[in-house]
Amino acid sequence: MNREEFAASIDHTVLGPETTWADVRTVLDEAAAHGMNACIPPCYVAEAAEYGSDPEAIATVVGFPHGQHAPAVKRDEAVAAWEDGADEVDVVINVGRLKAGDDGAVADELSDVVAAVPVPVKVIIETALLDDAEKRRACEAAVAADADMVKTSTGFADGGATVADVELMSEYLPVKASGGVGSYEEAAAMFDAGAVRIGASSGVAIVEGYPE
User: What is the distance between the alpha carbons of residues 170 and 99, in angstroms, rounded to a whole number?
Assistant: First the structure.
């Protein structure tokens, strides 16, 4: 992977609860300058699409961060994000439903989101809250829903991406490793484990760490 391809595999992210439009503009500008994607809160997608910066893609989140929105709300949120200009959506599964064994409900709500928008859908399974068997069931639900990618973490649980989780998840779908990836070396380890995308608030540092 050359530097340009590497940068285009990074989702430079700002999703904290205190995120302002000024914060989002900074991320958009940095993403555009370094050839990265930007992952931003849904409330700013319309402004980002009009802003005039040019990241590789604008991603946003759905059902974030806990995944407990009603299924229809997740679907409508995804549609609104796409209509506002999002190029990709990252949707959080309902972890409680999964843990209760209601995998059908998890897959059905993901299917509704995937069917509702003509853009790639990544499924955030929140690995820190799941054991390996549950991670596999979450990935199977994403496959059943025809999702494009699975993603490790929201960044709001106690834990983030690990090499072991990326290896497990990549058995099912392409993986976005997100949560705790802060350097080029850490990103490279995730790619080596099978990830195809990295989500990180440290996107600039990661790209600038690419060896010359």
Answer: 21
Nearest of 205, 200, 189, 137 to residue 10 by alpha carbon: 200
Model confidence over 126-161: pLDDT tens digits? 999 999 999 999 999 999 999 999 999 999 998 899
Give this prediction's pTM. 0.96
211 phi/psi in degrees, rounded to 5 = -65, 135
pLDDT in tens, 164-203: 999 999 999 999 999 999 999 999 999 999 999 999 999 9
Yes or no: say if 28 and 48 are a contact pair by the CB < 8 Å rule. Answer: yes
Which pair of tokens denotes residue 32? 């555009």
Question: How far apart are alpha carbons 175 and 24 in whole angstroms?
Answer: 24
pLDDT in tens, 55-105: 999 999 999 999 999 999 999 999 999 999 999 999 999 999 999 999 999
Nearest CA among 178, 182, 183 for reference residue 198: 178
Question: Is the separation of the CB atoms in 92 and 65 below 8 Å?
Answer: yes
From residue 108, alpha-carbon distances to 85, 97, 101, 141, 151 in Å are 25, 11, 14, 8, 18
Residues with a known catalytic role: 90, 151, 176
Peptide bond into 41 cis (omega under 30): no
The CA–CA distances, whole Å, from 17 to 13, 20, 123 equal 13, 9, 21
